[in-house]
Amino acid sequence: MSHLTAAGTVRALGVGAPGYAHPLLAPVEWAELARPGTPVHWAVLNVSDGPGSRPDPHCLEAAGRLRHAGVRVLGHLDLAHGSRPFGELVSQAQRFVDWYRVGGFYLDRCPTDRTDLPGVRRTTATLSALLGGDSHLVLGQGSHPHPGYAEAADQLVTFSGAWADYRWSQVAEWTADHPEGKFAHFVHGVPRTHLDEALRIARWQGAGTIFFTDRPGGTGAAGGLVPSGGPGRPGGLGGPGGLGGPGGRNSAFHSLPGYWDEIVSRIGPGVSE
């Protein structure tokens, strides 16, 4: 069963995977996302700074397993804070749909200012039309943007960063005008002993999708792994592209947290909110 409704809203607190290394390098990570009963809302697919130049058979297989498990696969599109040409983004999106049958998109490094809002709205409207009625769009901003962005996508990543900042973070007042689950939070460096506290903060601030990890912040491929593109070249799922926003392009988010099973047990099916 999908953890998202037909309208794209989340049913209950769950996990959003920012994107792991290539399936050949991170088979355990991708297998865990497809494990029956795992509360995963979506997983980001980043083949090579986008869909790559040709279909990758290993990524095709991984995406197929996730779809079969009811996990929505989101194609990774880098907005580069509003500097990417519109036609280039649409071309990449079309390849994601044609090759990997994605059910939505993660718009990495999405702008936050009001002046950029019309351009982002144009992009998200085009992507929604490309996907048809059943689509899911996530703006990977990493901080609270202008309130108008909330109407431009299904979810917004309003926090991406370290636990030391998250535990004292304040939610923007305008978020109260939106349903629970509209927002996603990604936090690294969360100690196992503070996992329950982190989950309480997420629920209090209206986040429906989370990715918490005990991995420390850092850059580069997770665990020193070289992405599929080879040394010095982009590649893999997640790879060096990763998640946008403060702390987002961070290797901490590219592998499973040490307490993955504990997260699953705390927010999995049948767990009371």
From TrEMBL:
It holds the Pfam family Spherulin4. InterPro entries: Spherulin4. Residues 221-248 have a biased composition (Gly residues). Residues 221-250 are annotated as: Disordered. This is Phage tail protein. It comes from Streptomyces filamentosus (Streptomyces roseosporus).
